[in-house]
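User: I'm putting together notes for a lab meeting next week and I want to include a structural view of one of the chains we've been expressing. I don't have a solved structure, so I'd like a prediction I can at least talk through. The sequence is below, exactly as it appears in our construct file.
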Amino acid sequence: MKKIFHILADEAQFTREILGSGVTQIGKANYGQRGMYFQAFTGVSTGLERIGKLCLILDYYIQNDGCFPNDSYLKNEIGHDLIKIYKKSQEIIKQNGFQLSYQNEISDPIQIKILDILSRFAKGDRYSNIDFIVGSKYQSDPIKEWSENIDKKLYELRVSKKKKEKIIHNARIIGYHLSPISHVVHYSETGKEINNVEIASLLTGMTEAIMKYRQLYVLEIIRYWTELLGILQSKAMQLGRYEIPFMNEIFAIFYNNNSYFLTRKTFDTDY
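Assistant: Thanks for the context. Below is the predicted structure for the 271-residue chain, given as structure tokens.
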């Protein structure tokens, strides 16, 4: 079998693994484990970039009778910009009249903001702490951005009133019993000081309530590219050059309905 076949299969497998790791970590990250946010952002942003580029490569391959693009096509025109990759994918879908089973575009406001945060993270926000220390003009806080624009929105939209009341009630009870004997010194994802048990318990409850929805919205974005990759793979195989592996099988875990996504917590393995 041709070497290119194995290279594509390896790239797909590597991409699947880092996406799975990133999605798993975004379901665990909290103010007490801030490093998990960077692990999650790194895995998901890198994985989306790579699966997106696989789609662009296959489209080029189809349009150019089995020829692959050169180095500058992806590096100079696209780079690490997830927004550009997404716009290119939309051009492919519209030009070919593709109809995806789940969603033909990323239009949900929260999904759009997730793409924006991850795209800026990939292009430089991953160095936000170092940028701050050295006084760089390019400063940002991706964890704060995520907390204010993703977590807050998910809590408002997806958590029931009854659940919210229970979280507040539990935090008050824990605060009442533990505040006299406990002291908290921490800070939230937005940088605000956490100085008592009740606030710490409240933030923990709020985060736990939205973890599965964090994963869901990220998984829906991954599923969009997974489905497009499968369609392009099929068309590329029709050229009959035996260079294209069944990458859709490698990404199979990401091609599931939302009810499956909501009942699974880990995606770094297939079992």
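A couple of points you could mention at the meeting. The mean pLDDT is 92. Strands lie at 186-187, 193-194.

User: Perfect, that's what I needed.
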